[in-house]
Amino acid sequence: MIYKPQSEFPLLARYKEVFETNPYTIFAYDKVIYCDFELPEHLQIHERRHLIRQQKIGVDEWVEKYLTDTQFRLNEEVIAYREQLESVKNRSARHRLRIQCANDLASPLYGNIVTLQEAIKLLS
């Protein structure tokens, strides 16, 4: 995978119109991961799934749907989070990560598209 600093993400301004971002926000776009820190393996798996889905659907179409269609965004994140969670073999660590992922999914990071309870259920 190719990594570049978050500041080089070409759609940063557009994403900021839709989401609450911060220096720890990771963006996967057109074969590149934009972030300012080294990603653990489980996050690499999550972001790689987004890149694969973009190639399958078409990068421009994926981005447009992701930014405008909350159900599409939720589905894409659930796909990526489930694969991320499956990669963690230690049951206790996977449980802790599931709670963290559910909190993220239910946060302004994704536009508050689900409640925490719904996110936990989707990722179980």
Q: Provide a count of the helices.
A: 6
Cα distance spanning the termini: 28 Å
Strand order of the largest sheet: 1-3-2
Given the C-alpha coordinates, what overall shape results?
Answer: globular
Please supply descriptive tags for the structure shown above.
7% strand; 3-stranded mixed sheet; mainly alpha; globular; 124 residues
Structure, explained:
The chain has 124 residues and is mostly helical. It has one domain (2-122). α2 packs across α4. The longest helix is centred in the middle third of the chain and has 17 residues, at 41-57. It has six helices and three strands. Helices cover 59% and strands 7% of the residues. The chain has a three-stranded mixed sheet, covered by helices on one side.
Q: How would you sum up this structure in a few lines?
A:
The protein has 124 residues and is mainly alpha-helical. The protein is 59% helix and 7% strand.
